[in-house]
UniProtKB/TrEMBL annotation:
Superkingdom assignment: Bacteria
Pfam family, one: MFS_1
SUPFAM superfamilies, per the entry: MFS general substrate transporter
Annotated protein name in UniProt: MFS transporter
Membrane topology: Multi-pass membrane protein
Record key words, sorted: Antibiotic resistance, Cell membrane, Membrane, Transmembrane, Transmembrane helix, Transport
Keyword Cell membrane: yes
Length: 498
């Protein structure tokens, strides 16, 4: 028996089930509400511009507060933060489900984002400190990566079923039983290793600067899709974001106990993993949004059929994550999994750029499978590299950076690609309108042209993600087996006893 087996928590696999359930709930919430939105809009009577805020309020609170949540879990204890996040998330979901007005619904979404920002980094950093043996950690991250990647698509299916057969409010209420089970599991089986907590004070200026900076950035992209890229508000928000985030970097380099120690992101492996993952998520979120609309509005699929149509992508993700990523993670360097993974996903995007008004599902299917396989394979090593050789007391904030790159990437992707699609649709209508053209057909053709233009952009963004992964990353694989260095950084995966 290896020494790492002796130190390992005997209940870690049971703990993984509850951690994965909590992660599923958070990821589900990014997409489950998308399908329910038309019904909620009809019920509460809010405008199209307000509609986007039901999605954006969640992403803003979540993306803006994640680093704060990560640091809180390092300071206050990961288990305690995890349970607090779950309870708060369940209460916010209950308020959302009972919403009697638009402002109550948007407020509940923002609260969900706030508690999600406590919950998500605590979940990932619990995994980081509970699974210490190389092969086991690869398997645990594989399961977690499959949940993180496939959760969005499962949200689309569940959102469709609940909206069609119950009503939109159940897309909120469904979180309550999830949270109750995860809290019970956390109390019974999760224990945190001794000595992995960070005892430093909380860096308040850092929290304020990074939260307002990220909120300005995401809000800037949202405003660009509403008012255009050249509007004063849009440009002002982007300038504010640049100034605030630059000030944040400056503060972090000077204070004794920074919110985000710059060593966490300046490591080329971790920095490269955050950057390439964030870009890939920008491309992927756009795809979810446009294909959902394409299937429902152009091909006339019901919400349930739309959700089911995404299942092959979920299967591809689970296969890529557990069968390719997890099996090869300790044998080959991460760049040989992430680079090709993003390229396979890009090939799937390339197929999906060919959609037409009357395309059959057989065109969409191979694109979805390749997309899932590629992203699943790349997610795996990305999740692990994010905490590669990180000090135990920085595990929470390093984990939060993964979630930050995902959430901010998702929010930017939704806003950026929506803008691209809208502009392309408008231009198509102007160019093709005329006597003898059926308005209904023209509208459908213009919408499809907008979607396929946005998917071309996603294809390009995934190619950039692949290039970054191939050039920046040099860790992972056999390089995992490194003894702790003098400066206190530790190997991501301890040396295995042979």
């Amino acid at each position: 028996m290896s020494s790492s087996d002796l130190q390992a928590d005997p209940r870690r696999w049971k703990a993984l089930a509850f951690i994965a359930l909590a992660q599923l709930m958070v990821v589900l919430d990014a997409t489950i509400v998308n399908i329910a939105l038309p019904s909620a809009q009809a019920d509460l009577g809010f405008s199209d511009t307000t509609r986007q805020w039901v999605i954006t309020a969640y992403a803003l609170a979540f993306g803006g507060l994640l680093l704060f949540g990560g640091r809180i879990s390092d300071l206050w204890g990961r288990r305690r933060t995890f349970i607090t996040g779950l309870v708060g998330f369940a209460l916010a979901s209950a308020v959302g489900g009972a919403a009697a007005s638009t402002s109550m619904l948007i407020g509940a979404r923002a609260l969900q984002g706030l508690f999600g920002a406590l919950l998500a980094p605590a979940a990932l950093s619990l995994l980081t400190v509970m699974f210490t043996e190389a092969k086991e950690r690869a398997k645990a991250f594989g399961i977690y990566g499959a949940v993180a990647g496939g959760g969005g698509a499962i949200g689309l299916i569940l959102g469709g079923v609940l909206t069609e057969y119950l009503n939109w409010r159940w897309t909120f209420f469904i979180n309550v039983p999830f949270a109750v089970i995860a809290v019970a599991g956390a109390i019974l089986v999760i224990t945190e290793p001794v000595g992995s907590r960070n005892r430093n004070k909380l860096d308040i200026p850092g929290v304020l600067l990074v939260s307002t900076g990220l909120v300005s950035l995401v809000y800037g992209f949202t405003k660009a899709s509403e008012d255009g890229w050249t509007s004063g508000t849009t440009i002002g928000l982007f300038i504010a974001a640049a100034v605030l985030l630059a000030a944040f970097v400056l503060v972090e380099s000077k204070v004794n106990a920074p919110l985000l120690p710059l060593r966490v992101v300046l490591d080329r492996n971790r920095g490269g993993a955050y950057l390439s993952l964030g870009l890939a998520i920008i491309g992927m979120f756009g795809l979810f949004l446009f294909l959902t609309y394409y299937m429902q509005k152009v091909l006339d699929y019901t919400p349930v059929i739309t959700g089911v149509a995404f299942l092959p992508m979920v299967a591809g993700m689970i296969t890529g994550s557990t069968q390719i990523g997890a099996r090869l993670m300790n044998r080959v360097q991460a760049r040989y999994l992430m680079g090709p993974g993003f390229l396979v996903a890009a090939a799937g995007m390339l197929i999906l750029t060919q959609i037409k008004v009357d395309s059959s599902y057989w065109l969409i299917l191979p694109g979805l499978i390749l997309m899932g396989l590629g992203m699943g394979t790349a997610f795996m090593p990305a999740m692990s590299l994010a905490t590669f050789r990180v000090r135990p007391q920085d595990a929470g904030v390093a984990s939060a950076m993964v979630n930050t790159s995902q959430q901010v990437g998702g929010a930017i992707g939704t806003a950026l690609l929506s803008t691209v699609a809208t502009s392309a649709t408008t231009a198509y209508v102007k160019a093709h309108a005329g006597p003898g053209v059926s308005p209904k057909l023209l509208q459908a053709q213009a919408a499809v042209h907008g979607f396929s233009t946005a998917i071309w952009w996603s294809f390009g963004i995934l190619l950039i993600a692949a290039a970054i992964a191939a050039t920046l990353l040099n860790g992972g694989g056999k390089a995992n087996h490194v003894v702790a260095s003098a400066d206190g950084e530790v190997a991501d995966i301890p040396v295995m006893a042979h």
